[in-house]
Amino acid sequence: MTRGNQRERDRERAAARKPNAKGSQDGLTPEQRRERDKKALEEKAAKKAQQAAGGGTGTSTDNKNKGGGKK
């Protein structure tokens, strides 16, 4: 076994780098969490619809040849 406890140490380091991880420690009930997520999704959808209607920056529609592959 060449790796020893490296995986475990890497997991601990990754967890230490993200102390504000979303999870059950946010202090919300499942109902509150659903409401929060629903509101965030609605805002995201409205923003996306606004960009589509107004043109926005056009980053997703103007990059048709982004791949640069040969034909």
From TrEMBL:
- Top-level division of the source organism's lineage: Eukaryota
Q: Enumerate the spans annotated as Small EDRK-rich factor-like N-terminal domain.
A: 1-34
Q: Where is the composition biased (Basic and acidic residues)?
A: 1-15, 31-46
InterPro entries reported in the protein's UniProt record: SERF-like_N, SERF1/2-like
| Pfam families per the UniProt record, alphabetical | SERF-like_N (PF04419)
Identify its protein family.
Answer: Belongs to the SERF family.
This chain belongs to the protein called Small EDRK-rich factor-like N-terminal domain-containing protein
Q: Which organism is it from?
A: Setaria viridis
